[in-house]
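Batch job 17 of 40 flagged for manual review because the log was empty.
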Amino acid sequence: MSGIDLGAAHEPVQTVAGEARTFGDVLRLRVHSTPEAPANFEKRDGAWIATTWNELYEQTRRVAAGLLELGLEVGDRVAILGPTHAAWGTYDLGAQLAGLVTTGIYPHQSVEQIRYLLEHSESRVIFVDGEEELATVMEAADGNEHLRAIVPWSAELAARHAGDERVLSPDHFAGEPLTEEAVAERLTGVDPSDTAILIYTSGTTGPPKGAMITHANILSLLRSEPDIFRFYRDDLLLSFLPMAHATERVLLFYLRINTGVAAAFASSVGAVLAEVREVGPTVFGSVPRLFEKAYAKILSEIERKPAVVRRLFAWARDVGRERLPYVLDSAEVPKWLALRYAIADRLVFAKVHAAFGGRVRASITGAAPISYDILEFFWGAGMPVYEGYGMTEATVLTHITREGKVKLGTVGRAVPPTTCRIAEDGEVLLGGPFVFKGYYKNEEVTRETVVDGWLHSGDIGELDDEGYLRITDRKKHLIITAGGKNVAPANIERAIKTKSPLISQVHAHGDRRNYISALIAPSPLETLEWGAEHGVLSEAEAAERRAELEHDPTARSEALGHAMAKVVEEPEFQQLFSEPVRRGNGELARVERVRRFFVLGRDLSQEGGEMTPTMKMKRKAIEEKYADLFDRVYDDDSFAIDAGRE
């Protein structure tokens, strides 16, 4: 079987957080437990090169020594801006060993956004990767009295800016490592109740808020690992989600340190689809959108196959559904059904597994709701997808579906010692040691968010008799129609978005309106493909824009927007969205169904102010920006596309 061979036994991991006092201690304990085991893999000259825990520890102690030489005191802030590579984690852990507070900054943000984060956090040092990002940081840091050093990740980049006294070479952090004794002494000055990491929320409304996550918060989560997921010594992850996000950083990276599980860092986001096959991860963590896109792509490809292939796929899917209740109940599958499934697996499902590297035994997803149909499909195909729920302010995770305790359509039960209850208005309230310390420099909002020890999540949900939680929508996102009906837009958007790979985003609208309408943003890659196939775009133009997306799938340049707009202008292309809307409506209650919609000439983007760095829609910004278009939907019969009524 392909993939990186760890040479480790398939045995349960041994966690170390139970003996730790601070998060920095977790790394020290891990190194003492499995010093020669691989911690990370990175691709260099076409080969995946391992770094052991002992080697990683030495690198992080070098970083710690360099930070102390700059005169940083316990509790000072250090910022990190760059892609999800091993260096990100090294700088993070080095600062932790020095008793500092680390804060991540998402790539590709504006000068104003970075200026705010640096000034608000009062960061003393920022590690930054890339010429373009460095230029943005240097402009954002102009006049910043707190910032002592801007550190490029490469010495070559630092040398090109040697004339700027703020720029410090990374060679400064490659000297003699801090001794074990010095690390231990430094960490004695850290209290478990002190802030370990400062995570800025993505800010769907207003400026980002800095959530203070303490060492005690992180340790409580890590100690609950047996109630979260079952890891083995030979498990391997592929790391590619933003490290500035709490999920990748705390739930995956920090949890790996506690368990000793290795990860390969993808060369880039654009390389994930190719490198997942090279790496062959056994556990795959991603946001729901990746599974949605994969599912829509599979269905789209099947629809173009001959009738015999479509029938085979439908049969295999039915077999997967029939087997699923036995799997969810951990019950023995009848022999006749097991035989049918073995055939379905060999002929159909093996191809699904191959797309994820062929070795995935389980996937973990969260950050947004995922469709029941998608969960059912992947579970039926023998690729369990465990859905988690939480929020930055609750140290990332409070609920998860766990092996033998799965109810599809729910986010599982609370992870002990988390407590959960539903307020009278349906809001999910969370309690326990995962709840954060508060928002940095914002006591007023902290008091509004944590009331009598209960963290108000802002989510609307339901708890069943067994404690399984189902999230319906964000409290502030609920649509109240002109008829007084409460409608959750997320249900509508999810139902439609999963029906076609042509759809990138759906924004449901209808507050105080007579019916629901929608804005649909087309998916860039599929739009380019259609444009090239139908002669709307030249093959050269389409290829150039595809290359841009392959390099950075989140890129939304003006040239891409111009190319997409030409395709969207075609009436034939716009009509392709009618069928997905009709099928999505078929899953919704009458009051939820989209009656009319329009197709935007481009995808929603962070650059356009419509998406957060974590790729969540900024609903208020979208409503304001496209208010005139939504008005036309209801006032102009010649505008928008009628989805039909049932």
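Reviewer: the log was empty due to a logging misconfiguration, but the result itself is present. The two ends are 50 Å apart (CA to CA). Unflagging and moving on to job 18.
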